[in-house]
Amino acid sequence: MINALIGRLSAIHENHKRIASGAALIGVLTLGAKVFVAAREVAIAWRYGIGETVDAYQLAITIATWLPMLINGVMTVVLVPRLVSLGRNSPSRRQFINELNGSILVVGSAVSVAIWAAAPAAASLLASGVKPYTLHATAAMAAEIAPVAFFLIVCGYLSARLQSRERFSYSSTEAVPALVIALFLILPLSLDGVGPLIAGTLIGYFLQTLVLGRMTQRGDPPIGTCGIRHRSPEWSSFYGAITLMALGQLLITITAPIDQAFAARLGAGAVATLGYATRIISLLTGFGAVVVARALLPVLSGAVVEGNHVLGRRQTLQWAALLGGVSTVAACVLWSIAPLMVRLLFQRGAFDAAASAAVAHVLRFGSVQLPFYFAGIALVQWYAATNRFRAILAVTACALVLKIALNALLAPRLGVAGIALSTAGMYFLTSTLLTLGVRR
Predict the structure, then answer these.
(1) Does the residue 13 lie in any domain?
(2) Integer Cα distance of 381 and 403 in angstroms
(3) Domain that includes residue 53, residue range
(4) Which DSSP string corresponds to 314-378?
């Protein structure tokens, strides 16, 4: 029996082995990075507690990083398959890389300047209901850390280049900013007030950019020159692809404020209850999406380049089924331990047993989304690998319409749990439509 199992494992296709090994490496490195992120949060809590300074810093980080993170998410999905298709050392790849280098520097600089200029308005929008000190501190800190936007966009671009070469060690660099910030907070430096936070944030992301630059020099040589004019033929289709993907990403991100708007109609505490449950779900979905997407996309893109579309489709469906099955088990486990998990994470101080029970109830309904979410993450990598971004946008638009309809139907009947269940319905439709598209 053992020999038969070993024989079956050895007969697994090489692509499956590459995906599995890549996912394992990314998972370990990402978990390691999360440890340093947790250390940063501990250091911030030790130094500043839960006062207005931390509120202002969190709001400022949101202002400085929301748009760069959106750009990076879109850029990765569009850029990785294109770089894989261009080969490793072809003249067309070198030309495209040189022009990308210049474009990324221009876009990163423009976004940083825009965030610096818009910091007061953005702070007024996000922090309109807080005390004047928090509002002013948010605007000031957002302007001071605006260069982080430039560093993030450059880091996202360099990470995409390394991902296209399946050099997944870049995942470890996500720990660099958190480590530097923690060190600035705990070391006896001559910085007062928010100085350690500002300096640690700027220097941390700058060092991450340097480390990723060095990794790219070694993992995807040459790093290239900087061209401004777009003369490469790749740009003709790149513009349309990135526009479609950006629209799809915007539609997905809109669901969060839509859910909050429906929750706000359910009475006091509904938004907070939904937020606590969503944070726990996001820990699982965020980590899983990073691991799955980073490992699958370059391998499936390689299958497309080699003309193995039948193989790529079959392997995509296999991974979608595997991830759906594993996450079904995870959803069952989360359903059973939801009350215990919420008590361990949140039940202290003003967060009493009644609040814990309410959040656990919503969390159980939110766990239903996990199988459909992870299956969809696997499926959408095939669409990205085959440049079917118009289909991704159409599926996303249908999912958003269903999400709003389910919110309107379920929220009055089930309360906040209905909003969580509507998310499962949205991902069920998404995974179903994506599966039908892949089979075609």
Answers:
(1) no
(2) 22
(3) 18-233
(4) HHHHHHHHHHHHHHHHHHHHHHHHHHHHHHHHH-STT--HHHHHHHHHHHHHHGGGHHHHHHHHH
**Residue 103 neighbours by CB under 8 Å, 6+ apart:** 228, 230
Residues 372 and 398 in one domain: yes
Same domain, 51 and 192: yes
Same domain (yes/no): 385, 246: yes
Determine how many CB atoms are found less than 10 A away from the CB of residue 95. Answer: 17
Angle at 300 between CA 388 and CA 287, to 5 degrees: 95
Where the chain has pLDDT below 70, the residues are 1-11, 50-51, 126-130, 350
Indicate if 140 and 33 belong to the same structural domain: yes
Taking the C-alpha atoms of residue 287 and residue 294, their distance in angstroms, rounded to an integer, is 11
Q: Report DSSP state, residue 221.
A: S
- Do residues 28 and 59 both lie within one domain? yes
**C-alpha Rg value of the chain to the nearest Å:** 22
> In the block, which residue shows the tokens 């928010």?
194
Pick from 233, 263, 278: which residue ends a domain?
233
Taking the model in full, what pTM does it have? 0.83
- Encoding tokens for residue 253? 């991100």
Rounded to 5 degrees, what angle do the CA atoms 411, 414, 415 make?
Answer: 55
Give residue 284's pLDDT: 85
In sequence order, what DSSP letters do the residues of 416-431 get, joined into one string?
HHHHHHHHHHHHHHHH
Domain boundary among 213, 233, 253: 233
Residue 87, classified by CB atoms within 10 Å of its CB into exposed (0-12), middle (13-18) or buried (19+), is: exposed
Task: Count other C-beta atoms under 10 Å from residue 254's C-beta.
Answer: 14
Same domain? 348 vs 290: yes
Instruction: Give the model's pLDDT for residue 130.
Output: 60
- Residue 407 has which token pair? 């919110």
Confirm whether 215 is domain-assigned: yes
pLDDT of the residue at 431: 95
What is residue 39's predicted lDDT score, i.e. its pLDDT?
81
Report the 10 Å Cβ neighbour count for 106. 12
pLDDT of residue 5: 43
Domain count, the chain: 2
Residue 161's pLDDT is: 94
